[in-house]
Design brief:
90 residues; little secondary structure; two-stranded antiparallel ribbon; 1 helix
Amino acid sequence: MAPQYACFTHRECEYFPCHPGAEPENFNCLFCYCPLYSLDTACGGSFVLLPDGRKDCSACLYPHRRENYEAVVRRCGGSGQGLAAPAAET
């Protein structure tokens, strides 16, 4: 995917920057809701498990770093060149 489509920074968002310690000039809002969240503890990001079992990802910047776009897309089953096609039914 062309680099200009792999990163989007929404500086006008009322929550921007939404993660403490984020570098605004290198913050990717494309994955505002983390697509890796559902991978539970295998997501690869920095998180804390809360007593009730939920993940607190507020300190995680992994999907928001510009350079991690292709890795996030691959983890979601894509090639980085577009989403993977669904498997053919048999």
